[in-house]
């Protein structure tokens, strides 16, 4: 049996920035307007076969509420990829994404950063105006060595592409680790209980 490689991916961002909807669309191919806010963190796994190897994505969807911010370090510890979600119609959510980029650069310098603008459908359907310009994010990505995507979980637009790029970049980097099915994250059992997103 071919050995399986595990890649720990963490999602970070402001509350209501679309993290859970992004993961749910990727894992279950579904979308709900009434997705509840994550409490603590939720864990999902996605098995892929890529570049001739078995890869398991261990995905941690963290809570965006400020009261859970101190817990997030538990979940991004040892992560090799981070999806920093921001709502394209909420300027403050991009500021929060930059905050998380700074945290990751300091604590996990080997973690690759992917900026993910969400809710593109709201802009294209003229429901809400765009507050974060693509050029602004591209310039920031060049500064930090990150990648950028704009997505719609409602439509499924670019959702798979985010995770596919993460998997491809990881395999190309030759930094594969076999650290266990959940990326060996250290979780304090006294912390807020986690829910499962899938």
Compute the number of structural domains: 1
Name of the CATH first level: Alpha Beta
Instruction: Tell me, rounded to a whole number, the average pLDDT.
Output: 86
Shape descriptor: globular
Number of strands: 7
What would you say this structure looks like, in words?
This protein is of the alpha/beta class and 198 residues long. It has a single domain (5-176), classed as P-loop containing nucleotide triphosphate hydrolases (Rossmann fold, 3-Layer(aba) Sandwich). Helices cover 32% and strands 25% of the residues. It has helices at residues 19-28, 72-76, 91-107, 120-124, 134-144, 159-173, and strands spanning 4-13, 41-50, 53-62, 81-87, 112-118, 147-150, 195-196. A seven-stranded mixed beta sheet has the order 6-5-4-1-3-2-7, with helices on both faces. A hairpin with a 2-residue loop joins strand 2 (41-50) and strand 3. The longest helix is centred in the middle third of the chain and has 17 residues, at 91-107. The chain is globular. The two termini are 26 Å apart. Residues 175-198 have low confidence and may be disordered.
């Amino acid at each position: 049996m071919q050995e399986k490689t595990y890649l720990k991916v963490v999602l970070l961002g402001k509350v209501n920035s679309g993290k859970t909807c992004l993961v749910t669309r990727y894992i279950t191919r579904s979308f709900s307007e009434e997705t509840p806010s994550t409490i603590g963190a939720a864990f999902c796994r996605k098995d892929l076969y890529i570049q001739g190897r078995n890869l398991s994505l261990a995905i941690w969807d963290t809570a965006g509420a400020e009261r859970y911010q101190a817990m997030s370090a538990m979940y991004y510890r040892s992560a090799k990829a981070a999806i920093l979600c921001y709502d394209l119609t909420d300027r403050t959510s991009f500021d929060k994404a930059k905050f998380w980029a700074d945290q990751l650069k300091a604590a996990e310098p080997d973690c690759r950063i992917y900026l993910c603008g969400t809710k593109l459908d709201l802009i294209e359907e003229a429901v809400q105006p765009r507050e974060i310009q693509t050029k602004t994010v591209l310039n920031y990505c060049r500064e930090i060595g990150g990648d950028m995507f704009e997505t719609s979980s409602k439509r499924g637009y670019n959702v798979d592409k985010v995770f596919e790029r993460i998997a491809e970049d990881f395999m190309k980097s030759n930094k594969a680790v076999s650290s266990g099915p959940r990326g060996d994250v250290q979780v304090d059992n006294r912390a807020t209980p986690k829910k499962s997103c899938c």
